[in-house]
Amino acid sequence: MERKGIIAAGNMLVDHVHQIGQWPERGWLVEIVHSERATGGAPLNVLLTLAKMHAGLPLQAVGLIGEDNDGDYITAMFDQYHINRQLVQRTSSAPHLDDPGDDRRRRPAHFLSLSRRQPPA
């Protein structure tokens, strides 16, 4: 049996990027001057890049995406670039981060501290 093509599995997500004019002081709001979205996750980006290069290889995605606007966006990208999404499932489950005492100001140090925590006994 001859194999031909590339299959990629893993995180498939959408990055929401908001540009602001200046960093707000604590407790203040700031205007978002520009917003855009882009695909994220290595498997998805590799498949899209290969498709845009017209590599001539069959491309297959494997993963789990949301039944939401972001999932619709990813699905549209698969279809636009002719990437087989037969093994991509959709879910309405909504995992999220929750950190007691969090002030909702996310910085890299916040995520580092989460990754160092021990699971509850």
From TrEMBL:
Assigned keywords, A-Z: Kinase, Transferase
InterPro entries the record matches: Ribokinase-like
Gene Ontology molecular function terms on file: kinase activity
Coiled-coil stretches: none
Signal peptide start and end residues: none
Biased composition (Basic and acidic residues): 96-105
Annotated region (Disordered), positions in chain: 89-121
Protein name, UniProt field: Kinase
Organism name: Klebsiella pneumoniae
